[in-house]
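re: ur msg from earlier - yeah i can do the glutathione complex, just paste it... oh wait u already did. ok heres what im feeding in:
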Amino acid sequence: MSLKMKLVLATTALVVTSGLSQAQVAEDSKLLEVLDRGSLLCSGHNGSFLGFAEVDDQGKWKGVDIDLCRALAAGLFGTSEGNLEIVPISWAQRWPALQSGDIDVVIKVSGWTQSRDTELNLAYSTPYFIGAFQAMAKADLGAEAIADLDGGSLCVAAGTSTERATATFLESNGIEAELLTFENGDELRNSYYEGRCDAIVEWAPSLAAGRVDAPDGADNHVILADVIALEAEGIIVPEGDPDWLDVQNWMLSSLWFAELEGITSENVDEVRANPPSETIAKFLGVSPGYGDRLGLSNDWAYNMIKEVGNFAEIYDRNIGDGSPYGLPRGINSLYNAGGVFFPFIID
Ligand SMILES: N[C@@H](CCC(=O)N[C@@H](CS)C(=O)NCC(=O)O)C(=O)O
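and the outut:
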């Protein structure tokens, strides 16, 4: 290769590399609309969805999904305080609310299904949670498996992938059981506890969380071992807005990266003052690149970690050891702790 040719290639590489550090956000991206508006409209729940979107005694939202909404708002605006509105919606309202613009993003343990992906024109982030659908039955029925509930009834949430997966499971296994569906989660659980159905089908973390509060005591209910289906839960935005989707993916990756590197809400200031590597300096906005490539401020990850902490902190506070539910993290851990999650490469 001639020297001239080498010079041309080197210059092109330089332009391409430096061009990468400034985001070209599409003019019609939801990202710009949200930044302009100065507030994020995120999905809540119609009632309490234990551990993920609950309303506490003071009427404040909390939970894993609510913390992800807070992290996103903090990443976008520096803090979620005054910049986040949680819009209460049912499972069935998720998609019309997103499509009409009543909410900007669905962070509502929503499973990746083919019809949502294609017919509803939705785009999924990388999954942030793996949930197994299982059934919990009244202990006095003596059931050990769902097949033992043949001829009985199951309560399940309307308009969810749980309803669909349960119907498929019953059909595939030749089990005849009636499915009673409910729009509202509290109504669903109360109907089960009041004896309107023999068992309730929910996501395993929800069953375990709900069992703690069973009015007649947790011991009167057994979670059956059959796994009806495994589901990957992701963050959802309308199809065709890659810039907005990028922010969701990098938000999740940032929370895992901080966890992997031991960066917490407690020590993030200390780490930022003395970053142990160039990658961490970039991640926390000490050196440029990590935010402006996405159309955000370079300290957006710092702001998220400072406000909500890393993924482990979010998990522990809401459904893990720091919560009333004490659920082990299991498959939802990072890869180095036996789970399936990991951050993407920061280059
Ligand atoms: N992952 C489901 C939504 C979550 C779901 O199915 N929730 C079910 C199973 S945990 C439920 O029973 N929810 C009770 C509630 O709404 O409180 C989907 O994407 O449709």
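cool cool. The CA atoms of residues 330 and 339 lie 6 Å apart. ping me if u need the other ligands too
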